[in-house]
């Protein structure tokens, strides 16, 4: 027979306060009731889900294969030489060797 072990829930110690219009409150209450959650649980879960989605969009990029090929081409393209680059490349590296970019 399988035993179910309850995992402890993290303590909620932070308070978040928001102001809402009457309509916003009504919609949130209805949605919370429809999902059989408290309003607090519904609002917090919805906000965290949306926040995670936004953060994920900033870490991951999607595009067509042609866009990816163009992206790689631009990465491989050499940069124009400037005085700042020349000065940087003439400095010794921490490894005791000078760096000279390979011509393309």
Automatic annotation (TrEMBL):
<protein>
    <submittedName>
        <fullName>Uncharacterized conserved protein, DUF1778 family</fullName>
    </submittedName>
</protein>
<keyword id="KW-0804">Transcription</keyword>
<keyword id="KW-1277">Toxin-antitoxin system</keyword>
<keyword id="KW-0678">Repressor</keyword>
<dbReference type="GO" id="GO:0006355">
    <property type="term" value="P:regulation of DNA-templated transcription"/>
</dbReference>
<comment type="similarity">
    <text>Belongs to the TacA antitoxin family.</text>
</comment>
<dbReference type="Pfam" id="PF08681">
    <property type="entry name" value="TacA1"/>
</dbReference>
<dbReference type="InterPro" id="IPR014795">
    <property type="entry name" value="TacA_1-like"/>
</dbReference>
<keyword id="KW-0238">DNA-binding</keyword>
<keyword id="KW-0805">Transcription regulation</keyword>
<dbReference type="InterPro" id="IPR010985">
    <property type="entry name" value="Ribbon_hlx_hlx"/>
</dbReference>
<dbReference type="GO" id="GO:0003677">
    <property type="term" value="F:DNA binding"/>
</dbReference>
